[in-house]
Design goal:
The chain is of the alpha/beta class and 242 residues long. 39% of the residues lie in helices and 15% in strands.
Length: 242
């Protein structure tokens, strides 16, 4: 029997105070997982949505923020969702904005995954890692050079880690959200021309909602996805099919 249940599992979701991270955390909890919400901001709203969830203060601007987290407690599922974006024409883009995005979106993701894997291997267990990629793991976009570079890197690391860890009991996959109504896309939705152009390209005809990503995360974390390794699942309303 195919099972989507996460009963008895513990999941750590980074950047779970709002948006996609919050929706994923709620979805995992609904599937039976015990959820830990890790991030810089206190996730009061998410805690109110998930009875029994725990908050863990971690600032992923420090790529090593989670290095000691997994050795102190058993975590079965890691969702690397924390991320930031900076917008400017490439000719004007600063080194500070480049480094901030790369440190949070890519370097912290790698070293958090590394810490998780070391703990799983040390206890002889198994686990699941779900990275949050992007449409800009496949496309270039405009005015977001460090974000595009970081999300291309997330796609590559997802495949590399799957190659190394699949036979050792850790499944590593990624979700590539399309244009979702979150804080990161507020500037796009506020620009009438950009908003119209984006909607015109999406076959389903609407912006995605954060909860549209939750089902994909539950699936990839569950036993139903046992033979899926190194995949990047597009949840984009058909954008990449256009």
């Amino acid at each position: 029997m195919i099972s989507f249940s996460l009963a008895g599992k513990r999941a750590l979701v980074t950047g779970a105070n709002t948006g996609i991270g919050q929706a994923i955390a709620v979805g995992l909890a609904e599937a039976g997982a015990e959820v830990i919400l890790a991030g810089r901001s206190h996730p009061a709203e998410t805690l109110a949505l998930i009875p029994g969830a725990q908050a863990l203060a971690l600032d992923f601007a420090d790529p090593m923020a989670a290095k000691d987290v997994f050795s102190a407690q058993t975590i079965d599922i890691l969702v690397n969702n924390a991320g930031i974006i900076r917008r400017a024409d490439s000719v004007d883009f600063t080194e500070a904005d480049w480094d901030a995005v790369m440190d949070t979106n890519l370097k912290a993701l790698f070293f958090t995954a590394q810490a998780f894997a070391r703990a799983v291997f040390a206890r002889g267990g198994s686990g699941q890692i779900i990275n949050i990629a992007s449409l800009l793991s496949f496309q270039g976009g405009i005015r977001v050079p460090s974000y595009t570079a970081s999300k291309h890197g997330v796609a590559g690391l997802t495949k590399l880690l799957a190659n190394e860890w699949a036979a050792r009991g850790i499944r590593v996959n990624a979700i590539a959200p399309g244009y979702i109504e979150t804080n990161n896309t507020e500037a796009l939705r506020a620009d009438p021309a950009r908003n119209a152009a984006i909607l015109d390209r999406i076959p389903v005809g609407r912006w995605g909602e954060a909860r549209d990503i939750a089902g994909a995360a539950v699936f990839l974390a569950s036993p139903a996805a046992a033979y899926i390794h190194g995949a990047i699942l597009n949840v984009d309303g058909g954008w990449l099919a256009r």
